[in-house]
């Protein structure tokens, strides 16, 4: 089975904060809706519609349980949860549990077809950023300080230091398969914007 490329999707402050007290530091419904659309949308090459291709979302155990129980597993996506411990009895649901990052990739590859997104949190982003199969980072940049206690491991915005390259708006739209709103958006008094970074 060929191993898939990995796409990270993350919302982070300009100082790379992504989480606080086990949850998201902000409430940005527009970004949550973007996350939902992008991670659900089948890859452009996939054939419609008799056998719709499901994408995979890979996440850490803490992120999985940060999702309200009525919303998990995330619908219309294959959910893979990484934990060193066995799945708790309280979470017998349609998610797949694995005990390592490589096993998560294998489980995703075994399903075949769809895109594979790494959706957090900080520990799992770190593993993904160390993996050469991670080619794309869909970043929602959020302005402001929120007292974050979890951080994204690499500042992809610093091209010189990290080797990641920011792509233009057209490339972002083509990559996610929708007309992404361009420029700075504002919601609940917070400013944020959508970006794509790639490893050249
Ligand atoms: P994670 O969600 O990354 O989960 C960590 C857990 O993953 C560990 O406790 C362990 O589970 C398991 N794990 C980690 N590494 C390994 C490994 N090598 N092998 C096996 N299992 C492993 O937790 P974080 O605390 O880092 O991140 C959660 C925070 O991030 C929350 O605040 C959340 O809201 C935020 N977040 C923010 C996002 C954003 O876009 N802004 C997106 C996603 C999350 P176990 O303990 O069971 O062994």
CATH architecture: 3-Layer(aba) Sandwich
What is the assigned CATH homologous superfamily? Dihydrofolate Reductase, subunit A
Number of domains: 1
- What is the end-to-end distance? 25 Å
Number of helices: 6
Which stretches of 5+ consecutive residues score pLDDT under 50?
A: none
Compounds present? NADPH dihydro-nicotinamide-adenine-dinucleotide phosphate
What is the CATH topology descriptor? Dihydrofolate Reductase, subunit A
Mean pLDDT: 94
Number of strands: 11
What structural class should be given to the helix and strand makeup?
A: alpha/beta
**Main β sheet profile:** 9 strands, mixed
CATH secondary-structure class: Alpha Beta
> Compute the gyration radius: what is it?
16 Å
How are helices and strands ordered from N to C?
EEHEHEEHEHEEHEHEE
Note the overall shape: globular
Helix content: 10-25%
Instruction: Note the beta-strand portion.
Output: 25-35%
Brief description of this entry?
The chain has helices at residues 29-40, 61-66, 101-111, 122-129, 159-162, 169-176; strands at residues 6-13, 17-19, 55-60, 77-82, 96-98, 116-118, 134-142, 150-151, 165-166, 185-187, 190-198. The protein is α/β, with parallel strands linked by helices. NADPH dihydro-nicotinamide-adenine-dinucleotide phosphate binds at residues 10-11, 18-19, 22-24, 59-63, 66, 82-85, 99-101, 119-124, 127, 150.
